[in-house]
Structure formats: C-alpha cells, structure tokens
Amino acid sequence: MREYYTITELTREFGISTRTLRFYEDEGLIHPVRRGRTRLYRPSDRHLVRQILRGRRLGFSINEIREIIQVYKTPPGEVGQLHLMIDKIEEKRQSLRQKRRDLEDTLQELDQAEEACVERLAELGVKT
C-alpha cells in the first residue's frame, strides 16, 4: 500500500475537483499531511473520500456524513457506525418514498388539469 497520494491522483481517481477535496478538508472530514504548500493524502484519507462520495450519492448531507465518520472514531466504533448507517438509510428511504408519493400526486393533478383544459377547448369548439 502506498504511503501518500497527491491531490491530482485523488481528483483523477474519483472524478472530482481539487476544490471538492479542499472543501472536505475545510469541513474537517479529511486531514491531509502538509509538506509546504503540497497536500499529501494518506490511504485513510483516500478511503474517507470514497466513503464521503458514497454518502453523497446516497443523498446524505455533509453533516450526516460527518456524524457517521465521528461515530466510527469513538466507541462503539464500527458497530455504532453500522447501526447509525442503518438508521440513516431507513430515514433516507422513507424520505424518498414520500417524495415519490408527492410526485405521483402531482402527476395525477397535472393529468386532471390537462384533461379539464382539453374538455374546455372541446366545449369552445377548438380542436386539439
């Protein structure tokens, strides 16, 4: 395993910008080693970037990701982190299900509004 990765290596590997990595650093999620103005990322930082990006894809906020990372670093460690992840996943799943219901309701309302418009145009003798 390598000792360090450069910012360029990580941005290329993960398809993200240097600004994104700096943002994660500013948020305290990763802690690269500094050699002058150069940032060097340890394998643990690389792993955290992968986990952060996964969390973002799942729809977690930066604060939720920070919380998950912090739980791992304190007792009960990984077990606590996994339980928290399960809870967060369920919350996210419920939120998405509610959004889906809301979208379905909105689509139904749009269908009804369109139908009413078509019917009124027919009453006015306008062909659609």
Provide key terms for this protein.
128 residues, 3 strands, elongated, three-stranded antiparallel β-sheet, mainly alpha, 5 helices
> What's the total count of β strands?
3
On the 0 to 100 scale, the average pLDDT is 94
Radius of gyration: 24 Å
**Overall form:** elongated
Q: What can be said about the biggest beta sheet?
A: 3 strands, antiparallel
- What's the number of helices? 5
Question: How do the SSEs run, as a string of H and E?
Answer: EHHEEHHH
In helices, the fraction of residues equals over 70%
| Content-based structural category | mainly alpha
Strand content bin? 5-15%
This entry's quaternary arrangement is: single chain
Strand order, biggest sheet? 1-3-2
Parts with pLDDT < 50 across at least 5 consecutive residues:
none
CA-CA gap between termini: 67 Å
Brief sketch in words of this structure:
The chain has 128 residues and is mostly helical. The chain has helices at 7-14, 18-26, 43-57, 62-73, 78-123; strands at 5-6, 33-35, 38-41. Helix 4 (62-73) packs antiparallel against helix 5 (78-123).
Please outline the helices and strands.
Elements: E1 5-6, H1 7-14, H2 18-26, E2 33-35, E3 38-41, H3 43-57, H4 62-73, H5 78-123
Antiparallel strand pairs: 1-3, 2-3
Helix pairs in contact: 4-5
